[in-house]
Write a structure and sequence with these properties.
Blueprint (H helix, E strand, L loop, with lengths): L12 E7 L3 H14 L9 H4 L15 H4 L8 E7 L5 H8 L4 H4 L3 H6 L2 E3 L21 H18 L2 E8 L16 H9 L7 H11 L4 E3 L9 H10 L2 E4 L5 H15 L3 E11 L2 H6 L2 H19 L5 H4 L3 E8 L6 E11 L5 E11 H21 L4 E2 L22 H15 L15
Parallel strand pairs: 1-2, 1-4, 2-3, 4-5, 5-6, 6-11, 7-8
Antiparallel strand pairs: 7-9, 9-10
The chain binds nicotinamide-adenine-dinucleotide.
Nicotinamide-adenine-dinucleotide binds next to helix 1, strand 2, helix 12 and helix 15.
Amino acid sequence: MKKPSVITPPNGKLGVLLPGLGAVATTFVAGCLLARKGLAKPIGSLTQLGTIRLGKRTDNRVPLLKDFLPIATLDQLVFGGWDIFPDNAYESALNAQVLERRHIDPVKEELEQVKAMPGVFYPEYVKRLHGTHIKQGKTKADMVEQLREDIRSFKKNNGCDRLVAIWCGSTEVLVDPSPAHASIEAFEKALRENDPAISNSMMYAWACLKEHVPFANGAPNLTVDIPAMTLLARDMAVSIAGKDFKTGQTLMKTILAPGLKARMLGLDGWFSTNILGNRDGEVLDDPGSFHTKEVSKLGVLDTILQPSVYPELYGNIHHKVRIEYYPPRGDSKEGWDNLDIFGWLGYPMQIKVNFLCRDSILAAPIVLDLALLMDLGQRAGFTGIQEWLSFYFKSPMTAPGLYPEHDLFIQAKKLKNTMRWMMGEDLVTHLGNEYYG
Ligand SMILES: NC(=O)c1ccc[n+]([C@@H]2O[C@H](COP(=O)([O-])OP(=O)(O)OC[C@H]3O[C@@H](n4cnc5c(N)ncnc54)[C@H](O)[C@@H]3O)[C@@H](O)[C@H]2O)c1
């Protein structure tokens, strides 16, 4: 990344495009609308509530991030999106059953204005859904053109200065990296030839990048995590990030595992199971979609615990992840974790974590932060993969050849130091008796 000499100010409206207007997307939109009316607090959002220490501790400079960074305000946001069902954001929010009526009704009119544009949907990538609100086109290249037209019309009709897109669509089946993903030319040929290696989410991402719209991927699908997208992002000077919002059990894992490692406590096994009953759970009930999620969730412990560096502590971990679709729970997921750890002289101990979390409540602030920070990065001239935003992802994208950083605390430090660096402030190194601020 090149240090920006100037950051274009966030003037005018920022359009946030959401492919997939389901539970996460509508919880995010409703929350922003409520927060800007002062009816609720954007809890969980670093950009709205977080502060940053600048200079020495004795300087007492600790502004709010939203005052320090030239980011768009909530008032400047305009929301739009696509779905394969025709519901507007109000109907979809009711259907998702995440928010109570007291949080939906006060913003009913604004939510109704967020109407789903027809989606691009080849059902083989999401087997459990039978979309009815979908585009027709002969080839995947035609679909990309239709999406590009949607993007241009949305921008014009809503008077937006800039756009960002955050994929909030369903998890797709695992698509293996293929030669069709290797270059821009191969990808465009594959689009024209309806190659099965091109999934729905990739068509949205391609359309966004072609329209200079930064794209972040909240699901574990490959989507922008292929060479063709990185190359296109570089050519179009646009930013990309992914993948899979870090919420729930994985968030807990990346909080707990660094603590165990910092104290040199050993780990024999980590068994994680979840029950959830929302549409995401239904989609994940399909083994193909679950496998994509499993790959995303399993990678975390290895990079945090470094078994090759600490073989006697972490060389033989049994790590298992299960997700069970259980409709009565709706969006209120329950996760159980059992950690078999060992300490001094090898004595075994156990930790049990029972997290009664709300997935979309944890994901919504991530969507907001990503929208604002991707836009900031774009205005600062950051292009390609935005590793500084790893903090928000279960399976962070990295430059080729680098391993992803999963430790939440290292990610947080990287995020804040990048913010200091881009704004011309000293980095906080914690040397000289310094305290982590
Ligand atoms: N909630 C969380 O904590 C969390 C965490 C990490 C990742 N995610 C991911 O975020 C995504 C959204 O989660 P959710 O709980 O909102 O799911 P959801 O099922 O409520 O919403 C997904 C929406 O995407 C739509 N969709 C599917 N394919 C589409 C396409 N091709 N074009 C347009 N729309 C399409 C579906 O109709 C649905 O309305 C999922 O991929 C999920 O795995 C969620």
